[in-house]
Write a structure and sequence with these properties.
This protein is of the alpha+beta class. 25% of the residues lie in helices and 23% in strands. The chain has five helices and seven strands. The radius of gyration is 15 Å and the shape is globular. The model has no long low-confidence stretch (mean pLDDT 88).
Length: 123
């Protein structure tokens, strides 16, 4: 759906800064199709000028995240990283912090730990 929105509405990303955030329910480790996989979706998002705030802040590669955002069935032993926040590339220098809600608190409410980004108003 995201890929379709990017293709059909490029003006959404051209008129003002856009932050794209949410549960993408996908990860590089699950890629199977070479043209309709998460890797190519992130490449498409990047081509539209957005970068993953998590990866910018933590300097981790795109398939070796050390901090999970999701625990399958609220099980701490089943961690995955499937929630992302993409910010405009020109905000890179303005990114102050990226944090995740702690599992010990959030798993009472959800199987997701919310990503939290702090971006300076200007450089």
């Amino acid at each position: 759906m995201i890929r379709k929105a990017l293709a059909e509405h490029p003006e959404w990303l051209a008129t003002a800064p856009v932050v794209m955030a949410g549960d993408f329910n996908s990860h590089w480790k699950w890629d199977q199709e070479p043209t309709n996989d998460f890797s190519s979706l992130v490449a498409d998002i990047t081509n539209h000028g957005l970068l993953s705030a998590y990866h910018l802040h933590h300097l981790e590669s795109a398939d070796s995240e050390k901090r999970p955002t999701f625990h399958q069935n609220k099980n701490i032993a089943q961690p995955h990283h499937i929630d992302y926040i993409f910010i405009p590339a020109d905000w890179k220098a303005r990114l102050r912090t990226f944090a995740l809600g702690h599992a010990d608190h959030w798993l009472r409410f959800s199987d997701h730990c919310p990503p939290i980004v702090d971006v300076a108003a200007s450089t």
